[in-house]
Task: structure prediction
Amino acid sequence: MSAQASLPRDFFAAFGTTEPAPERWDGSEEHLWTLLRGIPDPEIPAISLVDLGIVRELHCESGARAATVVITPTYAGCPATEAIRQQILRVLEAAGVTSPTIELRISPPWTTDWITATGREALQQFGITPPCTIAGNVPRALQFRPACPRCGSHQTEQISAFGATPCKALHRCQQCREPFDYFKPL
Amino acid sequence: MNTPAETSHRAAAKMLDPHHVAWVLRLADGSLVLSQRMTEWCGHGPVLEEDIAFSNIALDLLGQARLLYSHAGALEGRSRDEDAFAYWRDEAEFRNPTLVELPNGDFGQSVLRAWAYVSWQCLVWARLEESQDPALAAIAAKSIKESRYHQEHLGAWVVRLGDGTEESHRRMQAALDYLWPYTSELFHLDAVESAAMHAGIAPGLDALSETWAGHTAALLQTATLKPPAPTPFMATGRQGRHSEAMGYLLNELQSLARAHPGAHW
Result:
């Protein structure tokens, strides 16, 4: 109850329920990375924005308490991009960054190969099979049978090429019969 | 690395060709209008999976349109943003090929139309990666990854329905006969195409015609469908002269923004 009462009132706060209490930025770049690693993806909260490979660069100036975060969208039309911007700004402002700016960059384009090992593990734990690493070869990628995140079987079939979010497809395990999400290689 | 805005400004300073903006807008309008048509299937798909697939593809197309409109606005330098292009231009200012604005028809016709346009897009994106306009090249590099998924998915449906039951085959052949004459516009070389091609911005669409025809012939053969004989008909959507369907489409797309100018979420 008290945790709910302390939530900020703006809409995007709904995505950030796991956010820790504001911690003041110590002026180092490393600390900013730590803060960013604490921000979950709005659509797949099991993984952080950093582990998803969305945060491309970080520039900061401790004297001016200024920081610029360069981010890249996963999919061109991803509706979460605006939520992500808001979320980063909120966390940085709460940490005492006076003029945080977000720069959106589309080149080079995001690829699932940028998901970190930690991120892949987090997806797996959450029940989403991480992408195979043959991004860029769509026909081959489509033939790949992802392993079931529950029982590990490769006896799986695709139910739907497009899932609940643009980045996922829906599959089913033929061993344990459970449906599961698969993060499509891009 | 530069932001799209920075590269857009640099490109604008270097190339003052008015055809440049016009060409980018053709591409943007194609994505937006097809996105709108595919969105119409949301809640009406023949199966839940395809309902989701069409909505997802529509979303990707909308993402392309947004990037392209923002780029066109930067090139043009008249402070028009993506909304200004999408909501505040009238029918004659839209320069999408007629193919993408045609009514959806049945599911098979929608699949076939989307496949025809998306497979054209894949060829264009691939060549745009070497465009003299670096922002356009970046948008193409981003978009091609998504478009290839669309092409695979839609192509599989063309085959499944074409080489399906007697009824699905009959419907697909009818859809092909209807849509086929509109595809020639995708490769028609006019003043805008020619100027953009000579400036090194656009790939020169007439040169893509053979490749596209090859891909299409192969897919249609697998789908047991026969392309109709060529006709002299040339659609004129990219010149701003649209089919009757376009006014209705825009009315739906623009009515909310025009009823509440400047409204925000």
